[in-house]
Amino acid sequence: MAITTRGFGGRRAPAEKPLPPGQFLTEDFPVLSAGPTPNVDEAHWQFSVHTESGEVRRWDWAALMAMPVEDVTTDIHCVTRWSRFDTQWRGVSVDAFFEDVESEAEFVMVHSYGGYTTNLPLEDLLDGKAWIAFEHGGEPLAPLHGGPVRLIVPHLYFWKSAKWVRGFVMQEHEEPGFWEQNGYHLYGDPWLEQRYA
């Protein structure tokens, strides 16, 4: 069952900043989830990268906090047609998690606490395109918005920015995640309006 909150009243974008096709602008932060919100505290949170060779790298909360932190201001676009401009996040670039990871795989399955998954090409996570975020708007990331930690991939529809993220599994071939198995597009570029398969 999907869970939603208010925030679907919108307006057109200012003329100086375009919106992807079919989107409306909101200043709220609507909540959409496919199930209940997992209860994951910082003391028990872990993140891992599993390679196709079986290698596993793990980080706990202390290790995450010791990594280089970045402040990111970016627009986000939800497949349900809302967009927010200039959202503010704090987190660690996904690049930092791959510094010592050896993999020839071209795809990643993102796994979340609660069982959610989404698929991404690895190139869409690297080169400053994605972050593991733990703050939004200067505050710790609320559980309803994916806290304590979520993935941020702002150039794709926001379902690719998995809430409650706990790991990446490297894959040699692309496989669909949760929403992709249920009719969403495999890639999800908002500028090409890749909403559904």
Short description:
The chain is mainly beta and 197 residues long. It has helices at residues 61-65, 94-97, 178-181, and strands at residues 3-4, 24-25, 32-33, 46-50, 56-60, 70-77, 82-93, 107-112, 117-121, 131-136, 139-140, 150-152, 165-171.
Describe what this molecule looks like in 3D.
The protein has 197 residues and is mainly beta. It has one domain (3-192): Oxidoreductase, molybdopterin-binding domain (Sulfite Oxidase, Chain A, domain 2), CATH 3.90.420.10. 7% of the residues lie in helices and 33% in strands. The strands form three sheets. Strands 2, 6, 7, 10, 11 and 12 form a six-stranded mixed β-sheet that branches. It has a five-stranded mixed β-sheet with strand order 5-4-13-8-9. The radius of gyration is 16 Å and the shape is globular. The model is unreliable at 1-9 (pLDDT under 50).
Keywords:
single chain; 197 residues; mainly beta; Sulfite Oxidase, Chain A, domain 2; five-stranded mixed β-sheet; 13 strands; 33% strand; globular; OxRdtase_Mopterin-bd_dom; Oxidoreductase molybdopterin binding domain-containing protein
